[in-house]
Amino acid sequence: MNAGVVLGPEAPAGLVVRGLVVQRGGSTIVNGVDLLAPPGEVTVLLGPNGAGKTTLLESLSGRIPASRGSVRIGGRDVLRSSRVARARLGLAHVEQGRTVFRDLTVEENLRVAARTDELNDAYTLFPELRPRSRVAAGALSGGEQQLLVLARAMLGRPQILLIDEMSLGLAPVVVRRLLPAVSTLAAQGVAVLLVEQYAALALSIGTTAMVLFRGQIVLHSYAVELRHQTDRLHQAYLGGVDHSSQAKELA
Amino acid sequence: MVGVCIVLLYRMTGVLNIAQAAVGAFGTMVLLELLEAGAGFGVALLAGVLAAAALAGVLGALVARFYSDSSAEVRTVLSAAVLVGLLAVGFRLFGNDPRTVPSLLPGSGFAVAGVVISSNAVVLLVLAVGLALGVGLLLKRTRLGIILRAVSSRPVTAEMLGVRVAWLSVGVWAAVGAITAIAVTGIAPTRPSNFLSLSLLVMPAMAAALLGGLRSLGGTVAGGLLIGVVEGAATAISQVSQYRQVLPFVVILVCLLWTQRGEVWDAAR
Amino acid sequence: MRRVERLTSQPAWALGGIAAIAVPLFVTLGMPSYWVYLSTTATVLALLCLSVGVVFGRAGMVALCPMAFAAIGALATALANHWRIDLPFPVLILAAGLVTVPFGVAVGLPALRLRGLNLAIVTLSFALAVHAIVNTVGFPGGEALEVVPRPDWASDDPAYFLVCWAGFVAASVVLSWVGARRGGAAWLAVRSSERGTAATGLSVPRVKLMAFAASAFLAGVAGSLLAGELGQLNATGFDPLQSLTIFALAVMVGARYPEGAALGGMLAAFLPELLREVDLPQDLAGVIFAVGAALGLAKGSGGAAADLRAAGRRLFSRYLPPGRLPKPSIVDVSDSRRERPAGTEVVLDTRDLSVRYGAVIALDDVSVRVCRGELHALIGPNGAGKSTFVDAVNGFTRLTAGNVAICGVDSTTAPVHLRARAGLRRTFQHERTVADLTVREYTRLVAPDADPRDRDTVLAQFGCPALDIRLSSVDVGRRRLVEVAAAVLARPSVLLLDEPAAGLDAVESRQLGRRLAEIPTTYGCGVLLIEHDVEMVAAISDRVTVLDFGRVIASGPPAEVLADPAVRAAYLGAEVTA
Fold it and tell me: Is residue C576 over pLDDT 50?
């Protein structure tokens, strides 16, 4: 599958995943996924609850071990590398559930990730954090916490940014504030892999989109096309996708 | 002060180390051995502290390597096992005879309202308060401190931000081990000092730590003082003086039942 | 089926029986007297290991005070002797055990609230306190050099060894018997999940206290036997270090099992001697125990005995065929809801349930009714409050407002296990079966009254593994099936299923869907199903309620609800309709 994704030998920049298999508690959650997240683009990964999206991301950042396959960051295979090593190669993972350091203030949260004392980048992109800089992160609203986590990930100057369910538990109006920030990051040359259950919002900023269903990619297309074909999307969510047509999507 | 160390280690690495005092006692014993061998006090103290730091560092590395995914419960059981092992080793190396431990400072002390306070106790108290304040400042003000706090609340997230958590935690273990050695050496002159009794200092220390809610350093110092005072008072009343070792139990029990009264269900399981 | 049960459990019993007879023969006939004396010590220590095995090995509570209990037992024995209370020796021993029980329960009381670290601290400080008291008071008659007498018929060492051995064997038999029944399973269940245990209708406090009582009893008996063995007692034998050593030892050997405890006793008594024989320092034993316990913990196994058992099972499974289940009868029932009688009796009625965590509103005035014979689906995007709703209905989460009635009885304030007994059963999104149990033992734990034939049919229908398969050896999806089947077997009036199909592949989850559709009519209960597979929900449910941000946004027949634009918007993000 994925005939449209060109995996040339000259090691493309960004994130390249091939044949990834992840098992958890004896069952296979991610079953042979190939994907490519090129720099400067937002790649959207959609799929219903329980499809394996979070597990996939967690294995990419090394939070959980993968069984087989290859994960390349800028051409280097990191499948067996430690979390720290992956992070230092430029991989950042915005986990599900807004993982701020609750007892630390906003500024302290940012300092953990910053290589230098320069926090201005974060405040420029997210000006609403500046007045809150001395507030404990645990006391922020959900939306502010998500902003903070994004800002924190950004300060590590990642080449690849994995974002898991940014919208979880947030009102759509808040999500609409977050999305442009993600686009801005991509425009700065970061390869963004965005996992979402709310398809419409994510597709509005994505370049390409994939649907993961029961551990496999069942649909791969340009985001702009999917945006106007909600019935195809519905179908993919329910698992009954037409496998013959998908290979041509990106060709 | 041992209590402060326990709290420190627990907050930084998530391990409630029942063997903490034993680690400190190990340092104290090394110091004594060297003194008996004719070394100067300063050299011996340094060696003892380094020995404790090294021992703690090794323990920390082992925990980080093999038990990083274990629950806090398993780690506590582990530390109990470590205590058993350390005591056996300590018994082998240092024997079981009580020793006289020289005070960190000479001098007999002074009397306040009829109660003799040794200069040793004052120094220890100052050290404990200083330690609590110093560590508090370190955690609040420096980047290292911020990172340490981040690691203690979400180690995996910190790792994914590129923080070398394993190295840091070994460092914390070693540093805390060194401080514990100083603390134990300081307390030692006031007690019958063999390796076992020094190791069991962990109990009042735990009580103090719990009074501080296992989080607050200042609270722990206050708790330690309170326990010390109550113990001292109990010693003064002859009927109960024999039972003063029961005190930590009572304090711990009351304290825990109060703080945990809301915890009806086991956390995430 | 009964015969198969007996067959599969026989090897362990047979081996145990042989050991129970062979060991005393070997000891009393073939050993020099000093070694007989050591064997007695080993037996007593083995009994102590068993005591730890109950409270930690089975129930998973870190209690670091076995020696303190033993001290109390020994103290009681010495007192009885001092006061010239003349009891036959066996009665005296049992009485000493009984005297210890209240102390065990007293120490166990904090365990209802405290766990892990905190419990470890409490019990260790209890050990220290008991030691301090015993040390100060001394054992009665100690100064007068009074000796705790052994009975006339067991005054010499071999005879006394036999007495101790008999005690150990009796304790092992009783524990194994209890372990194979619901009581023992409940201990394991508490260890694996307190919530899961309460949801099956067992009272967690009772189970925990029973474990402490049993543990204290065993340790008290051991202490009493020790008093008889030594004659004269002194406090240093009961110091907290001994408690810790026994505990480490018990962890290392896996004292849940009799052979583990026996091994522990032997190690504790003989290892120092052996080390001396080969000119190694005796206290190396402590180091060995510590390392052994550390290794056991690192592997996360149940200690040496558990490893042995697992190896034994692998060996036996080659020769014994596993218990077979009848083939599941495949009936396509996807359309069975048409024949279903319209439910009228409301078995679950929630009114205006609200749950707040601080400023966050997780549930906001949610009212849901489930009738007998109805399959009611609750759907909604991630974080909509579905699981919170189940937790609120079942009693884990405190309500901010609202009422819950089960079968017409208001249960708003009832504790979890009473709601379960009132006819409410649930399964969990992250399954909470007990990995240490076999399928048979787990179903017995959850549904003690189920008829074996019923059980086999239901298990087969849901595609569960065979009865004697241990749950730890099957994957998560299959464990969840066992959880669902066992909950059905408990014959609830209301069954709450939290994402039962998670972890199953497409074919399996479709099969499960069919089975689920049968439950309400076949077993006459109301089912509330949380499921994200919308296709399945549409196919099998009678009513659907949709939650979004903690509020009900639609409720009614599936076709109607799923066509609702608000529902479609909730699923794909609000702007899909814009």
Answer: no
The conformation of residue A129, written as its DSSP 8-state character, comes to: G
Q: How many CB pairs under 8 A join B and C?
A: 153
Cβ neighbours for C219, distance < 8 A, ≥ 6 positions apart: C47, C48, C51, C66, C67, C69, C70, C73, C100, C104
Nearest to C361 by CA among C384, C332, C395: C384
CATH number, domain with residue C507: 3.40.50.300
Distance from CA of C247 to the nearest CA of B (A): 8
Domain that holds residue C391: 346-423+492-572
* C270 & C382 share domain: no
Predicted pLDDT of residue A43:
92
B158 Cβ under 8 Å from any chain A Cβ: yes
C401 and C262 in a common domain? no
ipTM over 0.95: no
Sheet with A15-24, edge to edge strand ranges: A27-37, A15-24, A68-73, A76-77
Residues of A in contact with C503 (CB under 8 A): 25, 27
**Residues of chain A contacting residue C476, judged by C-beta atoms under 8 Å apart:** 24-27
Q: Are residues C220 and C363 in the same domain?
A: no
Radius of gyration of chain A (CA): 18
Between CA A221 and CA A210 the distance in angstroms is 6
Residue C554: strand, helix, or coil: strand
CA–CA gap between residue C365 and residue C368 (Å, rounded): 10
Quickly state the pLDDT bin for B53 (edges 50, 70, 90). confident
Shared domain for C215 and C127, answered yes or no, is: yes
Distance CA C519, CA C532 (A): 19
Could you tell me which residues of chain A have a Cβ less than 8 Å from any Cβ in chain C?
24-27, 48-50, 165, 167-169, 171-172, 175, 196-202, 204, 214, 230, 233-234, 237-240
Burial of B108 per CB tally in 10 Å (0-12, 13-18, 19+)? exposed
Instruction: Give the residue with greater pLDDT, C330 vs A216.
Output: A216
C-alpha span between C208 and C216 (Å, rounded): 12
Same domain, C225 and C354: no
**Are A63 and B163 in contact (CB < 8 Å)?**
no
